Amino acid sequence: MASLTDMRFLLHDVFDVSAHFADLQLAEPIDRAFVDAVLDEAYRFTEGELAPLNRSGDEEGCVLRDGEVTTPKGFKEAYQTYIDGGWAGLLGDPAYGGQGLPGTLGILLEELMATANMAWTMYPGLSRGCMHALEDHGSEEQKQQFLTHLLSGRWTGTMCLTEPHAGSDVGLARTKAEAQADGSYRITGTKIFISAGEHDLSENIVHLVLARVPDAPSGTKGISMFVVPKIDLDGTRNAVVCGAIEEKMGIHGNATCVLNFDGARGYLVGEENQGMRYMFTMMNDARLGVGLQGVCLAQRGFEASSRYAQERLQMRSLTGPKAPDQPADPIVVHPDVRRMLLLQRAIVEGGRALVYHACMLADQQRQHPDEAVRGEAGELLDLLTPIVKGFLTEAGYESVNAAVQVYGGHGFIREHGVEQLVRDGRITLIYEGTTGIQALDLLARKVLMTQGKGLVQLVGHMKACAQSCEQSLPELAAPLANVADEWAALSMQLGGRAVENADEVGAASVDYLFYSGYAVLAYMWAQIALAAQQRLGAADDSRRAYLEGKIQTARFYFARVLPRTLMHRQAMEAGAACMMEVADEALLAAM
Amino acid sequence: MASLTDMRFLLHDVFDVSAHFADLQLAEPIDRAFVDAVLDEAYRFTEGELAPLNRSGDEEGCVLRDGEVTTPKGFKEAYQTYIDGGWAGLLGDPAYGGQGLPGTLGILLEELMATANMAWTMYPGLSRGCMHALEDHGSEEQKQQFLTHLLSGRWTGTMCLTEPHAGSDVGLARTKAEAQADGSYRITGTKIFISAGEHDLSENIVHLVLARVPDAPSGTKGISMFVVPKIDLDGTRNAVVCGAIEEKMGIHGNATCVLNFDGARGYLVGEENQGMRYMFTMMNDARLGVGLQGVCLAQRGFEASSRYAQERLQMRSLTGPKAPDQPADPIVVHPDVRRMLLLQRAIVEGGRALVYHACMLADQQRQHPDEAVRGEAGELLDLLTPIVKGFLTEAGYESVNAAVQVYGGHGFIREHGVEQLVRDGRITLIYEGTTGIQALDLLARKVLMTQGKGLVQLVGHMKACAQSCEQSLPELAAPLANVADEWAALSMQLGGRAVENADEVGAASVDYLFYSGYAVLAYMWAQIALAAQQRLGAADDSRRAYLEGKIQTARFYFARVLPRTLMHRQAMEAGAACMMEVADEALLAAM
Question: Is B246 a catalytic residue?
């Protein structure tokens, strides 16, 4: 279950989302009441329709028979409700049937959906990436042909990148595209790990496929993008067939498909050999979405385990009984249980803040009237995207594992639903680019190649925030300023070493990603604590307790989580030599 | 697949296990040839019979029908082979049919079995705990009645501690035991999470059950231990029935049972109200076994992912192509992939060394002729047991997650078998006492309550080892000496704070456990590196490469893993206040 209270606090009290929307060029103004109404409505849908299907969907899974995939019971009906509610076109261009709302509203819907049921949410989730790519790069005709149906929700979309021999290295893709006399292409090849690749929710499925035209340059420069509809525009069944669905660790409710394209008819998007660039339009959005999944799973785990910790009675507090009339104290009295709960809370709320921050930057980049603001927002967003994806999925995975640990043996069995969060969550560290890929993107492309453009900006914001903390939250001010300075210095240092040896980048990258994540989360928690502090005076008792909880969690984060930067710094400073000097054979287990 | 090469290197080159056995009071001397023969024979059995059932066992799981549990295909036959091979009685007292071999040989067998098939290995694994308890605390009659059949393997055993409301807090157990005129007891109650609680492998199952006699003192002081055979001594079916088997995240091949005791006939072990003390005899042994499971799973993950990293071609090295004739380089060239492989290797081999070290201490404690040696070994073993269980399971879980990550998307699907390692491994952090319970045991009981007796000894050994490193491995010497000193100093500091506030112990405990684990693993890696270094001169080229791999992994461990102590130290120093000042309601997720 999502927490509307916490979502609203972030949106209104920390980030003042109404002011944010007021600054954008929107067709219709969006005020606080509208945001809250969308939240309420979406919450009713997600908790009412999607949450009840989360565990049953995991247990039933998807079934492939004769090329057709049947989704778990209730998935199809829930999808119809989703369409009927008008949710599918929330963000799209009104010219093609969309409602033209800014992306931040879309992420709120996505958050509520993914918190209720991650596997189900991936069906419409993949459509959104598809819509973005077509909006940005499709022809007018393609928008009429495909986008309108995606925005109505009657059709869904996929992203077809991976092939058996081409995973992180998309440039190795071999799927062929041969131009036909009528302007279309014949697509031939095998794509794997295609989420929502085949299912029974929608009338048609629009595959966005990366393929190579004859004589295309090798690598990513020779990749083109095609729309390949399952049912072709003339109503005939296209030659794309689901050959298998994968048996996997989690997200059983979503069909992960092997798709065989056997001379399927496809339509070129944009120009030939520009497919990777277009694909990044989808991918950046999708990466924010996957980072959000980490937060959503963590929210579910935190909610469940925090409730359990208040109910489960085991042992006495070391400082004397806290519930003397009971046979034992609730486990929430034990310091280590509190540590696990606060850790989850710090990840959930700090992570949510980071996702919202990134989405508001995306809004600004697309819809702010001031070009300078658009540019700065774009730089910051570029920097934050791999942190959102790479760090929040790792942190989210740690968080759901902590939820299981609070439950003890009861967490390992299926009954309470927390082990599913671990199984579902494991994929978030992998798809849309593994943690290692995100880390390289962050350090090599977003920091070193830009000479730290976004980073310098962010570090400036962090130090300004630290200054704001000095009066009312001095215990956060110095550590925040320090980590900001150290982050900048470390980045410079790594840049210097990278010039001498490119392997230093790869060797430091994942530690750099974690370092950056903890630094950014400190910035988020400082903002949350500041907002809470400012509202303490006018608050009644119950609100006061709520606000104090925020400040205390911020303190916990700074005292017990932020010090992790120490070990990441030292690991980075150790350099590449200790990994590169090892012979390849010593990296193979002895027999 | 286990690595006999690595196991032998540790046993003979690092720990000189033959000299160790020569020092013990054994019925028959054990030389190197004997150890190697046992390893070879056990390896043939485990790889031939057990490994092929690991994945099928996971997929089939166990089935309960009319109170009877059917294990996955092949499990029963493999168990028969196990008995026929004489493996069941390896360690037991020869007076009751055992072979009287020292525990370290038992752990080698257990390692090979658990590496091949963890779920299967739990069936005989539970028997061993049962045997120990009966050997140490059973009457002569009980040994004849039960132990002989356990040692032959015709019967298996269980440990019945947990009840729905009594998990970590065993003292809350309510199962009743009422004395009968004939000296037996009637046992009534429900036990849950009973591994191997019901199955079709053996002729009979011997349950060791914790229960309370009428008017017993409350808490753990009122717990007694009973033997409750499934088939009673007179051949009738006893009133203990499997009411359900749990649906769970992993170890599907092992039946996790709800056992209902409905006035079942039980036989008191030892004296009334002494059950907890007896149970600890089993538990300490079992805890070493669970720590070993962490290492075994990590070994499987390392072996699989290290092979995959040499075969899988994706992207080019940042320093230029390493396999120019291939479409891409093997992923082992990428620094971050090397990091993930070396991390696994450091955990696997360092963890294995720690388990062997602990088992050799257990041998000394039981079978060394010199009382002073027995005493010191016991102190060290007490200290190391929670580290083996708590730290090596956590490290093993990190390791198998790294294995999945090396595989990327291919790690999330079932095909390669690595996701199963994560699902199976998750329980090792929980059963036989969660990480939090181990951490409290370590800090409160093993360090503070003994005034650091074992710790002072261990720190002394570590510093002596650091001194040995000074000439040939100076890069390890200083960090090892420093972490030893710091560990001692931190322990003193925590002791001081604990006097003022008992919650400081709980607040620091898990960070203390991790700190201790990394410190001890540094000690293990220094010993491994020293042994390798000493053998370099006489080695041929291939052996030289093997030995250099050990030294390089040690360097990696010191450079990139040991710095984690920094963050754990800082987290401990932050103290309990940031967790205890938070209102309980702030630890409940907002709605």
Answer: no
